[in-house]
Amino acid sequence: MTPLGLVLGFFIVTMLGLLAGALTGLSPGLHVNNVAALVLATQAAWTGFLAALVPDVSSEPETIGLLLSCFLLATAGSHAVFDFIPAVFLGAPTEDTALATLPGHRLLLVGQGAKAVAFAARGALLGTAFAVAALVPLRLLLADPIGLADHFRPWTPIFLVCVLGAVLASEWRGRGRVRRVLRAVWVQALAAGLGIAVLRGPSLVDPDAVLFPLFSGLFGIPSLIVGLRARPGSIPYQRLEPLRGLSREDARSALRGTIAGASVSWLPGLSGGAAATLASVGTRRTVGPSQFMVVLGAVSTSTALLSVAVLFIIHRARSGAAAAVRGLAGDLAPWPHAWAAPAVLFLLVMSAVLATAIAAPLAARIGRGVAKRWSRSNPRRIAALSLLAVFVLLAAATGPVGIALAALSTIVGLVPVALRVRRVHLMASLLIPVLLSYIGPGA
């Protein structure tokens, strides 16, 4: 294959990945894993499609696998950015953006919905940059000479318990702190019971879609129900002023999110939601909702990128996209020396970086367009229409069982609102089942 053909194929699949990520990100219930499964199931058709676009690749199966892997990385990077738009405006979170629904909705209610999306996009760009800078240090940390990946595994249950304890400790402040911590324990217990029943019980919903009704009920729908009680009249005017310049606080927030994303990109069983939980610990007093959106934007993109890099470092897939890359690219080139990264990894990283760099300003622009329409509407009507949209998406993605699960999750999701404790405790619905997978039989 000629170098020109490889470059042309790379840009074609990256742009297609950008579009696919926009589609999945703007459509709650769809995920990069759905695209990965589709590509694996229809690999022959994709091969013919690429061969028609770039005839040079038709005789090189390895190159086709590489290009399809670049497509998936571009999809993951784009999805991680566009995913914040429905989380902010519809209150329809995915597992990766569940916590973003909370500060994002607060910003929407004070006329800064567009700013919420823009700050998340800024965090996504910074998180991608920091993730690229973290590749070599992560390689040194996880593989030789330190080998943390193998040494840390027995300590993972303790790590998860510490995360849950740190979230509880965030309630230890001010008057009535004992009562508040006890209420938070109750919220974690309820969420954990729900998570165990849904994620470790009989599989009644497609495993690739089960987190959509669970997190919609825990995080999104309660916010919309509260919105139904808003005063009649116009929704707060959505201000569309230019975003302030990049600050050190933005960089610190993005770095925090990147470290959280890197921390779980190699831990088995953990994902973007766990990274968001790590990043949220202690943030209520230290950062406002705008900075928290920067944190979560960085979490989302850094987790997507580094989970695939980990495939080259310790040869273990920690995400659906990484597993698909391993299936498409075949035997991956080893990474024997920290300063000699495989060329395949370089191309994959470049596809994610390019897609994210284009997706971020596009998502911010779309957020501004959506905010203009939101500002002309009644808040009760918006909340009702958003609930209807979430209901339709749940019905399409998960059927009646998913709707029932979302209703049950909503009851649990309203408990911290009633008890006036942080809703981050609801992430126990994910962390406790993961913890049990380590300490249970056959772990």
Give an account of the 3D structure.
It is built from 20 helices and no strands. It is globular, with a radius of gyration of 21 Å. The protein has one domain (3-439). 73% of the residues lie in helices and 0% in strands. It is mostly helical and 443 residues long.
Q: Could you name the ranges where pLDDT drops below 50 across 5 or more consecutive residues? A: none
- Assembly state: single chain
Cα gyration radius (Å): 21 Å
Percent of sequence in beta strands = under 5%
Tally of strands: 0
Provide the succession of SSEs.
HHHHHHHHHHHHHHHHHHHH
Anisotropy-based shape: globular
How would the blueprint of this fold be written?
Layout: H1 3-26, H2 32-41, H3 43-53, H4 61-82, H5 84-89, H6 101-109, H7 113-133, H8 135-142, H9 148-152, H10 156-169, H11 177-199, H12 211-228, H13 248-265, H14 272-280, H15 283-286, H16 289-313, H17 320-329, H18 343-374, H19 379-419, H20 428-439
Helix pairs in contact: 1-4, 1-18, 2-4, 2-17, 3-4, 4-16, 4-17, 4-18, 6-7, 6-16, 7-13, 7-16, 7-18, 8-16, 10-20, 11-19, 11-20, 12-19, 13-14, 13-16, 14-16, 16-17, 16-18
Summary, kept brief:
This protein has 443 residues and is an all-alpha fold. The protein has one domain (3-439). It is 73% helix and 0% strand.
